[in-house]
Amino acid sequence: MKENRTYQINPNAKVHFHNNVDFCVGTGRMGLALQQEYQEQLKFVQEEIGFKHIRGHGLFSDDMAIYREYKDAKGNVKVEYNFTYLDFIMDSYKKQNLRPFLELGFMPAKLASGEQTIFYWKGNTTPPKSYEAWCDLVTATLVHLMERYGVDEVVQWPIEVWNEPNLPGFWKDADMEEYFKLFQTTFKEIKALDKRFRVGGPAVCGVRDEFWIREFLNFCRRENLKPDFITRHHYTTELPEKQGHYGYAELSDAQAGFDNLQTSRDIIDSFEEYKGLEIHITEFNTSYIPNCPLHDTNQNAAYLAQQLSMLGDVNESYSYWTFGDIFEEQGVPFTPFHGGFGLVANGCIPKPTFWTFKFYKDLSGECVHKEEDSVVLRTKSGGYKGIAWNAVRERMGRELALSFELPVTNEQEYVLLTKTVDEETCNPLKLWHDLGEPASLSEEQRKLLRDYSRPMIASRRLRAEANKVTLDLNVKEHGVVYFELQPVCQKSDRGYDYERVMQFKS
Amino acid sequence: MKENRTYQINPNAKVHFHNNVDFCVGTGRMGLALQQEYQEQLKFVQEEIGFKHIRGHGLFSDDMAIYREYKDAKGNVKVEYNFTYLDFIMDSYKKQNLRPFLELGFMPAKLASGEQTIFYWKGNTTPPKSYEAWCDLVTATLVHLMERYGVDEVVQWPIEVWNEPNLPGFWKDADMEEYFKLFQTTFKEIKALDKRFRVGGPAVCGVRDEFWIREFLNFCRRENLKPDFITRHHYTTELPEKQGHYGYAELSDAQAGFDNLQTSRDIIDSFEEYKGLEIHITEFNTSYIPNCPLHDTNQNAAYLAQQLSMLGDVNESYSYWTFGDIFEEQGVPFTPFHGGFGLVANGCIPKPTFWTFKFYKDLSGECVHKEEDSVVLRTKSGGYKGIAWNAVRERMGRELALSFELPVTNEQEYVLLTKTVDEETCNPLKLWHDLGEPASLSEEQRKLLRDYSRPMIASRRLRAEANKVTLDLNVKEHGVVYFELQPVCQKSDRGYDYERVMQFKS
Amino acid sequence: MKENRTYQINPNAKVHFHNNVDFCVGTGRMGLALQQEYQEQLKFVQEEIGFKHIRGHGLFSDDMAIYREYKDAKGNVKVEYNFTYLDFIMDSYKKQNLRPFLELGFMPAKLASGEQTIFYWKGNTTPPKSYEAWCDLVTATLVHLMERYGVDEVVQWPIEVWNEPNLPGFWKDADMEEYFKLFQTTFKEIKALDKRFRVGGPAVCGVRDEFWIREFLNFCRRENLKPDFITRHHYTTELPEKQGHYGYAELSDAQAGFDNLQTSRDIIDSFEEYKGLEIHITEFNTSYIPNCPLHDTNQNAAYLAQQLSMLGDVNESYSYWTFGDIFEEQGVPFTPFHGGFGLVANGCIPKPTFWTFKFYKDLSGECVHKEEDSVVLRTKSGGYKGIAWNAVRERMGRELALSFELPVTNEQEYVLLTKTVDEETCNPLKLWHDLGEPASLSEEQRKLLRDYSRPMIASRRLRAEANKVTLDLNVKEHGVVYFELQPVCQKSDRGYDYERVMQFKS
Amino acid sequence: MKENRTYQINPNAKVHFHNNVDFCVGTGRMGLALQQEYQEQLKFVQEEIGFKHIRGHGLFSDDMAIYREYKDAKGNVKVEYNFTYLDFIMDSYKKQNLRPFLELGFMPAKLASGEQTIFYWKGNTTPPKSYEAWCDLVTATLVHLMERYGVDEVVQWPIEVWNEPNLPGFWKDADMEEYFKLFQTTFKEIKALDKRFRVGGPAVCGVRDEFWIREFLNFCRRENLKPDFITRHHYTTELPEKQGHYGYAELSDAQAGFDNLQTSRDIIDSFEEYKGLEIHITEFNTSYIPNCPLHDTNQNAAYLAQQLSMLGDVNESYSYWTFGDIFEEQGVPFTPFHGGFGLVANGCIPKPTFWTFKFYKDLSGECVHKEEDSVVLRTKSGGYKGIAWNAVRERMGRELALSFELPVTNEQEYVLLTKTVDEETCNPLKLWHDLGEPASLSEEQRKLLRDYSRPMIASRRLRAEANKVTLDLNVKEHGVVYFELQPVCQKSDRGYDYERVMQFKS
């Protein structure tokens, strides 16, 4: 089934497109950043895409070993801080050209008021047994970071208080009042240290999120707090169905998600004091479980392509959850393609969605077109860059035949470059399946998968006619195509005759 | 135009196929090995293909600075040797896991009897003014190498005396008698040093080569010399037509070339003493000029695919001339795609022919099929590997539809991997042309070309029926396809359902 | 205080010196091998020293996630195995050119019969709740490794059953009978899989070790078991005194330790069936706690120099505990110089003891001298290599002035190379102290420490007199000096006059 | 012989010290930048020292292959330009974080008016046969560079017209009038292209240099030219005495050299129009021949230490001739220590002088002391940095005992770091000599030399008394010592007792 669509581009259209794709990316818990495979995946992601910030859970969890208690000679319990692993990790981020987007949590077991934990790695999700001790911990950590990396540097790291307190798994009883207390105490502590720090919350996800945001702002107004930004999460699948190690989830309607984001915006803007306050989506993905095979598919890549065109509309930033597949929330995965959140599978194999991010990163220019299947920008050099995708929630065998009529200023030749990621050209999941779904990849298989997981590149010469270049693109179902149209001025070397080399008849 | 061909493979056929593709590769003159770009190209070639030996001209040319004369206190001319650059180069080859195939030549200017030179870099091609001094030079060089790299190592480096003495440009007047003198003197000198050295000649090319080989062996018989091998060259284009910086040449009939090789074999075998003596083709390529755009094309890759299936038939080895495009015989090239001999273009961009070599390197198993368009081997694991190509001398729009019926021993599933290099999938020359044939590549263009110059990988599941797997391959004109068929035993992880992930209807 | 000692070397003395320094090295628990800093330290160690095997605890501990239980549809508990992390780690060892010396332990929590754990990282030290399930785990793991790395490879990996069962912390109640059951069951399981596997025990340490070894062999004899080797540990300090994060321990008399090793040898040899059975010291160091500042000192390096000269006397191998300081048994260290076991401190800074190992690794030749302060070997090239040290248990200000009279065969010049590690030349602990004992090293400090932590190199020309070269070495207290004496044949280049360059008066 | 000197430092002294050590460094001819060993040496130099510009000869020499002539169809000679190698080289400089300091020269053979050449590599040193063609060449080259690297970038590259035209070897007949013509023509051509270019001359060296500078400015004034800077060279040895491959030269009096530099300054300042015009010393070293063993010595390092303290006094910059030993002016060197100009010997072995540059690069702060043997700067952190040296023209066995009394503001502890390069601690020439002066280094010897060629690092704790720290330094003859004094605030970890670890009696 082929569907034809033609777009006549107005080069002077000023289409709203806030492309902040590289602002932040998610990560498995902090402590995993000690791992080599984690760092190799991150290195690959940074070289190809290059995010600016990174955000994950578990800064204060026990594997980080920051908060330590001991007994002094008199038997009194004393606190000391250990920043050995924190330094390892922050040094590594610096080397990878990343700044943290700090999430304060979870609770060190010794500082916790209860024993409730979340995840395979048992993050404690109860309030502190002492808010004073909590504040000491926060301050000691920030002071240490400022000493090590410079005050002017560290105050640029955004800080978010806790994660998803509206869910009882992440915050005991989803106790709103207690969270507000945590926020207020922490906020004041940090601002007292250096008021340049930017602190926000409430990092809500899904359940009753609108209510929480509204109440949060009511609370702030009441207490005369000025949070620097609001944070929330954004997932776009229905409830997953569990089967063995996996969960199968269906994509939800994209528009419903965008509407939900708009509601957050509207709530905030309804407060005079907080009108226009930045919203950071500190997590987003399709499914919210780390064992959803959807994440590894081309379908995910195409669906995300639309998301990335829209997420900046009412939000300052949006952080994909997560860059890689070193992630232990549901335990250690059994296979390389286990439906992890990562842009990159274990073995440093880019998934199709990786390329969607790469393509958005490579965009530049003025947006002149944004529709449900494509975005086009006009470049300084007199050409165009854009992305087209074919996103469907259920496979239906639809091929999109897109035609863009692109005005140009002079009668010359153009070169069209396309990079195509679809189920034929760049589909590591299929190759892995064809190989028998091996749990342990041989070095040869790993290399094969890596070599295969790259966009197909193609080029075409196009000639302007009547000050217009017509660009025809076929986008297969679940496909994403990046394209660049550049004017080309051919200067053949003395004696070089391409037509003759190629034996083209003239 | 589509042409169908079906091959029924006999798994027990013992087809003669001496695949020695990685024995040796050619290089621009020794002194160029000092260059960084040269070494980077070589590193890439060695990582992907991995040749065992390397052979080039100019070991004794002046830029190597080995042979030095000076005057002593009494004003007498004395000789000294400088091995500084030689060490740099041999160290680099060792690091690249290569042994030299030493070619003794050309003449140091101070040791030469005349002023005739060849090439932009002016290699002196006249006999020595003193054979004694020449022998001293050869011995001093070999002794130095033996001291540095070990005697047992260096005696394994084959030695060839001079290059193409049958051409007057390479050896003054193509003086056969003088060459025989050079050979005999050098041969004896080396064998006296260590008789384990393997020494051969006469490295002839093209003109009257049969006559030269016959006379060479007559001479050897007369003088009771036992050369360790015979060397010759093999080029397969007609005379090029010059236009500006370039020469355009047409491919010659492949069979004529193979017949010529057979003639060399027959001549040698006609001597009782030399029957079965190894022949090393110490240079081969399509065109013999370093500015023939043909070298950069897919056509070259397909034509070479057939060559590589046959060159071992009557020869021990065959050395492609050359691995890379750092090469100065006709001067410094003006553009990256200037028709150089290299498997790799400047900027470390693999050309289509590079992949033909890579594919042959990856073959293993017992040959069960060899025809003008394909070669197939049976592997130990119960599968097959092979290469198919579509080589034509003139573009005619022919697509080959090959069908291989491959017997297998059990009823199971197989995965077919294909790697395709053709004018659509891996054609850097076209991309470069589409970009406007830039003489200076930007870093971005270089990366784009490198990313594009890779085979397209695909996989398919095939099921055996009646103990047979039928493998259908379409090979586009000038295309080369590598394939592997492996039995696959699928073990899905608990709960993993690929069909469901992909939304395939069952 | 200077002490003079003269040694007249007999070049034909055949002194027993089994230098097996590179056979094996210890590591923090397996799971830590996932970490990047761990791998960087290991890479450094392997490049400079190059061990052959690596041994550590925790193969089956929960962080490795190998043993997994789940409930099937009917609610029955089933077992499955996850080798994802095991593959990461074994791949990394292979890349580092290491084979594991497998230690089977500790117990997965779900498979354990009790809740007793050891260390900060909580290794379960109770017997299996089911020996059948334990055997399944062992077999599944070995079979997986054989599939991945090849049967012929994996059977070369020595296997040790459990660690220090004679200590109640490591094995519940130090229950000897239970350990013997574990050993026998495991031994038979592995031999049934492939009898080429080499399996040993009982890995005892310190307390009642002689009794354990004797009883172990009695048991084996009774049960007709033929263990492939005996393992034990070897530490040489008195009980440490605890103070804050640290333990201070005094070195014990070296001879007492060697006597203890001899006793093990004697016990084994007293069994007819086991006479000459290999003993592997699978752990040794001075102190047995990972927070003993002694490990970071030059004193440790000098003391170990003597150990390394003797440990091969009655043992097949001896594995230093451990290569690096990524190690969590007592928690995460607060500073880089915290007295960890490692040859290398965090930040990849070699400690003095690192160089003792490097020096032993660089020895080669026939041993002609071995005393309490030095070892000397005669080399093939007609020179000597050796190590001298100045080991004292308490600082006393003793400088050793050693004089070696070394017979040589011809009257020529020699060059003496020395590499000196002592408290002045290579003492990172002092530099770190002088810098204020920083817990967090800046990149600059790290580099400074690394640059400083290298032996001081010096050279001297010595002339043979009366067929003898006299080599005088001053070894400062706690110093270790490596030396090489090589014949030198000077060939100055034409016109080069070193005396003149240096303005030496002749 | 020990000589004591005490310096009482005034922390508020504002001593003139224009430390521009990293502005520029010299290189062998451009074409050598294609070489791998060259690039490795440059990488090492850039990582450790980090120069900003690089200057060498031979931009237009034939091996660069820029200027090419050919005949068109009608037989007319035409010119074309080949920028292939130029791009390779400029790309490499960019990657090494270097900008060229362009020297325009020498003459392409085809563009030359005569056949006079200089050096082993035969740089043509005659005026152009056509000034128009010369100008085309200059413009084409600059335009190409501007297209490739950006206009705003390239106009920042200083341009010098020719090299040492006052010497007849470098400019035919040292024809002053002809040089002025070349300068004027070239200057105008470049300024017409972009007036932001900074263009200077006359790059004189030694002979009649003062006369040339004066006449050059007279000419410029007459012709109303405003050169952007004046360039000259600075060498400080007497005439070398030739012996075999080497030249032995004695150091000249340093003050005479500084006086000569002052004279240049005075001459320029005597012109009202050119008063204060920047002087760039575009070459300096001790000896001006590339085979002077002095360059490899510690004596050179110490002598240069004084030079670097003074060369900024009346000059804007001073470019050491050269960074490395890939250099062919007198042919290819026979040994690694052949007295080349380089900071680094072949094999990437730093010479003592390398460290003098490194030390100056590491200085920062306000200069408070500058004498013939030392320079001291006050740092922001309340400490000091400095360099001391012991430079003598003839070996006399003098050791300097320097004592610096350094005022500090508070009573605390300080750490003194010293890095010492002298004939004992860092003297690769001696080690190489002791090894027998091998022409070919084995990999092991190369590593040994590299490991040895590093400063000896030491640290000391010093305590302030009466607001003063007294720093005592012994500097051996030909020694150079870098030192840093930093306040140190010791924070020992809980329980850590350094005195106890070290068994120091308290």
Any descriptors?
homotetramer; 506 residues; alpha/beta; Immunoglobulin-like; TIM Barrel; 2 domains; 6-stranded parallel beta sheet; 6-stranded antiparallel beta sheet; 12 helices; 26 strands; 28% helix; globular
Largest sheet of chain A: 6 strands, parallel
Tell me the fraction of residues in β-strands of chain A, as a range.
Answer: 25-35%
Q: Given the helix and strand composition of chain A, which structural class is it? A: alpha/beta
What is the name of the CATH architecture of the largest domain in chain A?
Alpha-Beta Barrel
Which spans of chain A have pLDDT < 50 for at least 5 consecutive residues? Answer: none
Tell me the total number of β-strands of chain A: 26
Quaternary state of this entry equals homotetramer
The total number of structural domains of chain A is 2
Q: Which fold name fills CATH's third level, the topology of the largest domain in chain A?
A: TIM Barrel
Average pLDDT of chain A works out at 97
CA-CA gap between termini of chain A: 37 Å
Largest interface: A-B, 56 and 56 residues
Radius of gyration of chain A from the CA trace?
25 Å
Strand order of the largest sheet of chain A: 7-10-11-12-15-16
CATH class of the largest domain in chain A: Alpha Beta
Shape of chain A: globular
Helix content of chain A: 25-40%
